[in-house]
Amino acid sequence: MAIRRQVHCVTRGTSKQDYEKITHIGGMYADGGSWQETTEEAVRKIMAKECEFFVSKGGKQTNVIVGKYLDRFYLKTEADNTEGNNLTSLPDCRG
Fold this sequence. Notes:
mainly beta; 4-stranded mixed sheet; 3-stranded antiparallel sheet; 7 strands
């Protein structure tokens, strides 16, 4: 069974061109410690069914899934009825 983790924050690219590109996701463990990993590692874990990620907005959980554009895999959320992008609307992990 895959580990399920809530994503609380993201880290975006530092250049203006890559600002919306998510480079890392992060969250909190139940014991209060924090975790963070690259999007490449999260994509690998999702595709290997090792881990499931989700975001929570207004008490509703939305799964993070893998998308593909050309030859690049990226993270996105399943379609839901909320406005905006669930991942890019999260705060920055760097504080």
